[in-house]
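Recall from the previous lesson that a structure prediction takes nothing but the amino acid sequence as input. Here we apply that procedure to DUF2256 domain-containing protein from Polaribacter aquimarinus. The sequence below is the only information supplied.
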Amino acid sequence: MKKTHLPQKICLVCNKPYTWRKKWEKNWDHVKYCSEKCRRNKKKLA
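The prediction returns the following tokens.
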């Protein structure tokens, strides 16, 4: 698969797009944040 054809999502914290990564292959449907930093800062949304 070429990098231009990888799926993308929008991070719930920073609202920036992020691209599929190999380490997310098995749980891509459950990935919500682009980085560990955004995952830790998810509480700032509420």
